[in-house]
Amino acid sequence: MAGHVGQFFADEIVDLHGLLITSRARTWLDCARKMSIDELTVVADHLLRVPRPEFEGRSEPFATREDLADMLDRHKGTPGIRKARLALEQARVGSDSAPETRLPLVLERAGLPEPQLNVPRELSGGVVRQPDLAYPEQKVAVEYDGEGHSEVEQVVRDIAREEDFGRAGGRSSEFPSATWSTMRGRARPRSGRRWRTAAGCPTDSQLMS
Q1: How far is 16 from 179, CA to CA, in rounded Å?
Q2: Which sequence spans correspond to the domains of the chain?
Q3: Residue-wise pLDDT tens for the chain (209 aa)?
Q4: How far apart are the C-alpha atoms of 177 and 102, rounded to whole Å?
């Protein structure tokens, strides 16, 4: 264990069952010393996400974008501050998991526009679905399928989800966790072209013509 000395404002120290610890926003900033920009973006998205009260027992996010920006302004010159600023620029409200933060970053770097994150959409017949990522204009939904999606009951639900999108004239594309592990941290050019086409975005040749 290594000790560190730093400057702390009063509201950056909180009491957790009698133990004094740094606040979530301050901890995020401290992590900038070691974490990458994308890792910091994952943490920022977690702090910014709007919780589901019925499942989490809270209705407010752990932090607002203003809270994190204020933390950066307070500690100018802190090691990792530049990474934290870039991470906050990338951060989005709506991601429910680390893969749901990383996947849009990969797709955007492959040339796709910024997708909507976990926005409920009413399909045909009054059916409401909430895709992980969505391109509404192109009627494309993107889902990250973690390990739990290999279970039989979940597979049945996933098929029903795809059929709902199909009946509404849309398209649902899945990103299995096994595929994601090979793409993590980079966007393959061939995949980027395929996804741009699926989302109705112009290809490189169309942009140059």
Answers
A1: 39
A2: 11-93, 94-209
A3: 676 677 899 999 999 999 999 999 999 999 999 999 999 999 999 999 999 899 899 999 999 999 999 999 999 999 999 999 999 999 999 999 999 999 999 989 989 889 989 888 777 677 777 788 888 888 788 877 665 555 657 566 666 666 666 655 665 665 555 444 444 444 443 444 454 454 455 444 443 33
A4: 12
- Strand pairing of 128-129 and 133-135? unpaired
127 token code pair:
């059916």
Q: What is the pTM of this model?
A: 0.74
Nearest CA to 92 among 113, 76, 122, 71?
A: 113
State the virtual CA torsion across 177, 24, 39, 66 in degrees, nearest 10.
Answer: 110
Please calculate the CA angle 24-30-32 and round it to the nearest 5 degrees: 115
Give dist(CA 134, CA 118) in Å, integer: 8
The class (CATH top level) of 94-209 is alpha beta
